[in-house]
Amino acid sequence: MKIDDIKELIELIEGKDIVEIEYSSGDEKIRITRSATGAVRHEQKARSAEPADAKQEAVAAEIAAESGMVSVNSPFVGTFYCAPSPSEKPFVDIGTRVKKGQTIGIVEAMKLMNTIEADADGTIKQVLKKDGDPVEFGEPLFIIDPAG
Amino acid sequence: MDSYRNAVARHLKSLGFINDVIYGDSVGSTNAVISELSRKGAGEWTVVVADSQSEGRGRQGRIWHSPANTNIYTSFIVRPALSYEYIPAISLLAGMVVALLVEQCTGVPAEIRWPNDVMVRGKKISGILLEFLNEGHGRNGVVVGIGINVNADASAYPVELAATSTSLTLLTGRTFDRAEVLASLYSSFHTWYEVYVGHPGFDGIREQFMQRFKMNGERIRVMSGAETLTGVVKDVDRYGGLVLRDQGGRMVAIKSGDVHLLYGN
To answer: Counting beta carbons within 10 angstroms of the beta carbon of residue A84, is it exposed (0 to 12), middle (13 to 18) or buried (19 or more)?
Structure first.
């Protein structure tokens, strides 16, 4: 595989809502994945499985959708913060009652701070990311139970 | 003598694109004021200017020292009709515009440290923090908050900041008319913003940005929350991400984090 081919594959997923692509040609195989700190990484050999955390989050989001709960997702690739600053308390914890529009987290990308707001009145059922975790576009951050 | 309040209103309203100017002698933070106004429906290019801030903040809640009668503290709102991936690099655009302004005022070359720190002779001269407002119904706003050290002398800063901060006055020995500098800032930002939105994205401002970006080839450590990554800076990508070659030889595009220079091996 030529370097230009790899560049082309990276360009395919850059800035798009694609977490991972795999491409095979003859004996060669390449997998390109988005990873930590919003990075695009490419490996010449395939990984055996997705990280367990990613699976758990996907499952949590599915459960949320099926059970009428609300999943609050990240609008950007960036870093998740659960508090306004490292010395302050988290905006919310599991069990916190929230109002629609209430600030429940922050996602930062390149000093652009995006306030994450509750999409519904309810109770925080799950906090899917830890302070400082890298997050992807569209990735679930919180699960809110509107009936809670 | 013209007050700062009157001079700000006169200079900014002479720029045709400014929608409204809100001035405060002392506010908590100009970003907080404009965010609140935006939620109440303030239009694009509504501008907030303060003589001082009691709660000027940088990234991660860090304090931005904001004494009165000295510097520029301003925030404004734009509503770019851009897809999400092009929004964060408006942060780099703001840094580039401030770098150009500093050079225009002082004649001294300015350097941009990713994503938007403007450094002159190794010292920081401005602080820039942006906020993205998702206002629903497909309506998005970007608040751009800019602080520029204008007429601050060494005594204006606490000791711990004096060693790492500079100002237009410290660089030239002159006193600047803050309202005039403010008008130049807005005029330049508007021009480059139109280029950015029309292109769209970082490639439209790449040439001017990269002329002032001296990090290529530098070995750095990026600390982003819980994660630390070490590598050599190779480029800035089309979405404003910092491209590194990491220790495993992989090319990685960084979207956020504290960047620390590493010297030697």
So the answer is: middle
Asked whether the beta carbons of residue A132 and residue B60 sit closer than 8 angstroms, the reply is no
Q: Looking at the 3D structure of chain A, how many domains does it have?
A: 2
pLDDT of residue B59: 75
Give B 37-96 residues with CB within 8 A of chain A.
Answer: 59-62, 84-92
In this structure, are B39 and B144 located in the same domain? yes
| pLDDT tens digit sequence for B119-178 | 999 999 999 999 999 776 667 899 999 999 999 998 877 877 888 999 999 999 999 999
CATH number at residue B230: 2.30.30.100
Q: Which domain holds residue A15?
A: 3-46
Domain of residue B199, CATH code: 3.30.930.10
For residue B77, is pLDDT > 90? yes
User: What are the chain B neighbours of A35 within 8 Å (beta carbons)?
Assistant: 252
Q: Are residues B115 and A137, on separate chains, in Cβ contact within 8 Å?
A: no
Q: Can you list the residues of chain A whose pLDDT is less than 50? A: 33, 35-52
A62 in the same domain as A28:
no
Instruction: Return the residue in B112, B146, B256, B258 with the most chain A beta carbons within 10 A, the one to mutate for interface testing.
Output: B256
Residues B251 and B165 in one domain: no
Tokens in use for B261?
Answer: 């220079």
Query: What residues of B are in contact with residue A112 (Cβ under 8 Å)?
Result: 87-88, 90-91, 130-132, 142
d(CA A54, CA A128): 10
The answer to whether residues A24 and A59 belong to one domain is: no
How far apart, in whole angstroms, are the C-alpha atoms of residue B73 and residue B31?
A: 9
3-class secondary structure per residue, A80-122: EECCCCCCCCCCCCCCCEECCCCEEEEEEECCEEEEEECCCCE
Cα separation of B1 and B14, whole Å? Answer: 19
- Domain containing residue B88: 4-210
**pLDDT band with cut points at 50, 70 and 90 for residue B232:** very high
Are A134 and A79 part of one and the same domain? Answer: yes
Q: Which residues of B214-242 are buried (b: 16+ CB within 10 A; e: fewer)?
A: ebeeebbebebbebebebbbbbbbbbbbb
Nearest to A37 among B88, B129, B257 (CB): B257
Question: Same structural domain for residues A13 and A42?
Answer: yes
Q: How far apart are CA B96 and CA B187, in angstroms?
A: 14
Q: Please, how many CA atoms are within 13 Å of residue B248, restricted to the half-sphere of its CB?
A: 8
